[in-house]
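debug: dumping io for the single-chain case to check the tokenizer round-trip. Nothing else runs in this session.
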Amino acid sequence: MPKNRRRNNAEVTKRPRIPRRNNDEILGVVTEVLGGEHMAVRCEDGTDYLGVIRGKIKKRMWVRLGDVVILNPWLEMTVKKGKRPKAHIIWRYTRTQLTWLENHGYLKQEFLEDMQNI
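debug: decoded output
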């Protein structure tokens, strides 16, 4: 096949990245876009975080309202009294990846109901 010909690059649904619980990564859904790479994120345990898009993915992934993301919470010493705890947004799922996670039982039913309320 000549080099200048395009190959059929059909999107194949691979196993998406799953939160690593031993690294304190958790799933969340974006509830509000605050601007300046800051987002309000509701996690599967019910905690509201102030999510900051990690610098490495800032221009690669566009995070919008209602997107499901993986969060990596900051240390407890960064939490100020009366403020939301902060976390890095390190991954955003596409619709096909969400379908895969749902079919394989990685998403809790309560979390799915919260997503639809947003």
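debug: round-trip ok. The chain has a mean pLDDT of 80.
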